[in-house]
Design a protein that fits this description.
Layout: E1 3-7, E2 10-13, E3 18-25, E4 33-39, E5 46-51, E6 57-59, E7 67-72, E8 77-82, E9 91-98, H1 103-109, E10 116-117, E11 121-126
Parallel strand pairs: 2-11
Antiparallel strand pairs: 1-3, 3-8, 4-5, 4-9, 5-6, 7-8, 9-10, 9-11
């Protein structure tokens, strides 16, 4: 049974930083694509960062240069380092896995169609 559990969300002022973690169990961590999505109130879910089995990363234009996705295969943890946070980064952040996707495809095309999802962690950025 695949389980994903996010942590690390919280409240921060604009310009601050947060690091999200996603603990993964029951999943072949070294294969497939893993990604971070966010969903703000009234908005559709969007992919913000993805990393595929080979380690290639892709970012949404809105977070390029500010967010960094990484994974620790030994610990089976996916990370999202978020710097220079803006109020528009506020939302629920979810980690997800997609076995047959590339990171580029996830960022460009996927909103809800990943294989497994965590329950999310809330990020609030105040101005």
């Amino acid at each position: 049974q695949v389980q994903l559990e996010e942590s690390g969300g919280g409240s921060v002022q604009a310009g601050g930083s947060l690091r999200l973690s996603c603990a993964v169990s029951g999943y072949r961590f070294s294969s497939g694509c893993m990604a971070w999505f966010r969903e703000a109130p009234g908005n559709q879910r969007e992919a913000v960062a993805a990393i595929d089995g080979g380690g290639s990363t892709t970012y949404a234009a809105s977070v390029e240069g500010r967010f960094t996705i990484s994974k620790d295969s030994a610990k089976k943890i996916l990370y999202l380092e978020m710097d220079s946070l803006k109020p528009e980064d506020t939302g629920m952040y979810y980690c997800a896995t997609g076995e047959s996707y590339t990171s580029e495809y996830v960022i460009a095309n996927v909103r809800y169609g990943m294989d497994y999802w965590g329950k999310g962690t809330l990020v609030t950025v105040s101005s």
